[in-house]
Design a protein that fits this description.
By secondary structure, this protein is mainly β. A seven-stranded mixed β-sheet has the order 1-2-3-6-9-11-13, with no helix packed on it. Strands 4, 5, 7, 8, 10, 12 and 14 form a seven-stranded parallel β-sheet that branches.
Length: 151
């Protein structure tokens, strides 16, 4: 799916870069550090990249945009680590609307890993009724080295 970035809006400390796409706000955690978030993210895409660690705490929710085309993942963990301690994660509408995608790029120095504790609920995106009967996966694990752990 194509991402149209209009422009960067803010840099919060050295933690997250927020930008706007044609569909929703995108939040990037890219600094290689360890972070916790207890902020609600309705209609957002969260990207955790480049060895960064993000923990989801305090029962918050991350809900991907309800796009009508390709679907949108709520959280993408790419060459990074995600620890969901509690909360709700929901993928966007349509094929590709995964709740969480975990992927490790070839030759990356970081193994992508997502850990889901007992208090976490993850939903895939709903199907677009007129177009397909298939929605997105709750958790999608791609490429060698990627891992999802359910406790």
């Amino acid at each position: 799916s194509k991402r149209f970035i209009v422009g960067f809006i803010a840099l919060i400390g050295d933690i997250a870069i927020i930008s706007h796409s044609a569909k929703a706000d995108q939040v990037y955690f890219v600094d290689g550090g360890e972070h916790e978030t207890s902020q609600e993210y309705p209609e957002h895409n969260i990207f955790i990249l480049n060895g960064t660690t993000l923990s989801l705490v305090n029962g918050i929710s991350i809900v991907a945009p309800s796009d009508g085309k390709d679907g949108e993942e709520a959280v993408r963990v790419e060459d990074a680590f995600f620890h969901a301690k509690n909360g709700l994660i929901s993928g966007g509408l349509g094929v590709g609307g995964s709740g969480v995608t975990v992927t490790t790029n070839r030759n990356s120095e970081f193994q992508a890993k997502a850990t889901f504790e007992d208090g976490v609920t993850v939903h895939g995106g709903d199907a677009i009724r007129q177009t397909t009967t298939r929605g997105g996966d709750a958790v999608q694990v791609l490429h060698a080295g990627s891992e999802a752990v359910f406790k």
